[in-house]
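Hi team,

Below is the intake form for LysR family transcriptional regulator from Bordetella flabilis. Please confirm the fields before the structure is written into the shared record.

FORM ID: S-0412
PROTEIN: LysR family transcriptional regulator
ORGANISM: Bordetella flabilis
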Amino acid sequence: MDNRPSPPDSPASCAPSPCSAADSLAHSFATSYAGVVAFIAVASEGNFAKAGDRLGIGRSAVSRSVQKLEDQLGTRLFVRTTRSTSLTREGERFYEKCHAGVERIVQALDDMRELRQGPPSGRLRVCSTVGFGRKVVAPLLSGFQAAYPGISVELVLDDGVTDFTTDRIDVSFRNGRMEDSQVIAKQLIPMQMHVCAAPAYVAMHGLPQDIDELAGHRCVDFRLASGRVYEWEFKVGGQMRKFAPRAMLTFNDADLVLQAVLGGQGIAQMAGYQISDHLRAGSLVACLPQYAPDDRGHYICYLSRDHLPGRMRVFIDYMTTHIRALDLQTLDSFLPKQG
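The structure came back. Fields below:
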């Protein structure tokens, strides 16, 4: 018998890529999908009990699935104590590699279920900046749910940066400039910014005719979620110019800034959606329109996915149509002419 190995081009030899692909596929098939799902749930929720609640099974069933997965992988994925559950370094790496794939599978299943069952249904977790969420998004939810009664919506108000994966956010409303290439950002309307004051303040202190005159006024400022105080922005000669006021009052809530200005306590730069109604009513007066920045927007954002679930598609379309139909712009007719 000839026991010599087959030459590289012999049909008996196995090319590296097909064999390795087959081995990988076989190993993946042998690994419990239920164990991977249980692992993702525990990693997301932070403990086995909450993961069980999310999956609709008992804590012990989750623990058994994860244990089986660890045995199959030959790797410890969690550090468990009586008080906490945390990922090992191997667990962190495994989560990073597999959670996106599981999410895609879940989305595909949801999409097929929606096609089979009819009208869009399910749960949406939506995040928005606090001011825009209160003023614009929340009032539109009743109309959306009347149109799509099978969809439940949880609205989270947060001025911080949205983490779609960790916070399990489906859709987010963001303001300003979008520079994150990892998400799809669809502009709803431009974000107009204007310096405003109440008539009572104007009668006592007047209005600035130039940016340099702002230093002589009582300014009301906004502290961002990052902890940094918002710098007022202007466009001068085609270039951005920032102004950091010495504020008499500072709030970390945009509505409180508005209320202070309406009360005649000072002057502030605010977004058009906040002040448009007050400009029409005459309870606010705007100034320095010739320096208003024009590169900001209000955006509806979501992760870049090839197949959006029906509930997300109809929500994005509904909000886009209805927000654009709102009269939120600070029209030139409401702004004083500057000499």
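SUMMARY LINE: The domain at 122-190+297-325 is CATH 3.40.190.10 (D-Maltodextrin-Binding Protein; domain 2).

Thanks, M.
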